[in-house]
Amino acid sequence: GYACTMQNCLIKGNVAVGNAGGGVFDSICQNSVIAGNYAGFLGGGSRGGTNQNCTLVANGALVDGGGMYNSVAFNCIVYFNTNQAGAVRNIYSPSECVYTCTTPDPGGAGNTTNDPNLASLDNPRLNAGSPCIDQGANAYASGAADFSGNPRIYNSIVDMGALEYMPLPAITTAGLPTG
């Protein structure tokens, strides 16, 4: 998307040949998954604009900023993005990151560099024990629902990324027949 506002979107498999911003360019993205995009120069996932509670994974760029270039990220996961040589290139400066999970640490309040512990790159849900659970800042949360329609804030503190962690209900076998 170019110069637009996107909420609860899947932005996947786009290519910007010889340019920047394979997934989104100068846009506002909220509660969205930006994955598997490529830019022929900089910013495979996002170039410019603002990302709030987004998950940017498995994006690539020819030069740098496989995840983001010259972008702002609040409560995001920007991880597992590369350049053409396969080097980890999540963020290329100047980018501002606050309450974001990425590596290396870009500076900024509340960031973590720990692996976000996703189910998989194709299913970017947080697993139990993820360092992104309850680690965002509610002031930067966007909207009432996350990417999959669940409450945007669960357990009183917003999670990093597009999807709130929702524990599975306990399964009980009490009262079931045996044998």
Task: Please name the defining characteristics of this protein.
179 residues, mainly beta, seven-stranded parallel β-sheet, five-stranded parallel β-sheet
Chart the SSEs and their pairings.
Layout: E1 5-7, E2 10-12, E3 15-16, E4 24-30, E5 33-35, E6 38-39, E7 46-52, E8 55-57, E9 60-61, E10 68-69, E11 72-74, E12 77-79, E13 82-83, E14 91-92, E15 96-98, E16 101-102
Parallel strand pairs: 1-4, 2-5, 3-6, 4-7, 5-8, 6-9, 7-10, 7-11, 8-12, 9-13, 10-14, 11-15, 12-16
Tell me what you see in this structure.
By secondary structure, the chain is mostly beta strands. Helix content is 0%, strand content 27%. The protein has strands at 5-7, 10-12, 15-16, 24-30, 33-35, 38-39, 46-52, 55-57, 60-61, 68-69, 72-74, 77-79, 82-83, 91-92, 96-98, 101-102. The strands form three sheets. Strands 1, 4, 7, 10, 11, 14 and 15 form a seven-stranded parallel beta sheet that branches. The protein has a five-stranded parallel beta sheet with strand order 2-5-8-12-16, with no helix packed on it. The protein is globular. The termini are far apart. The mean pLDDT is 93.
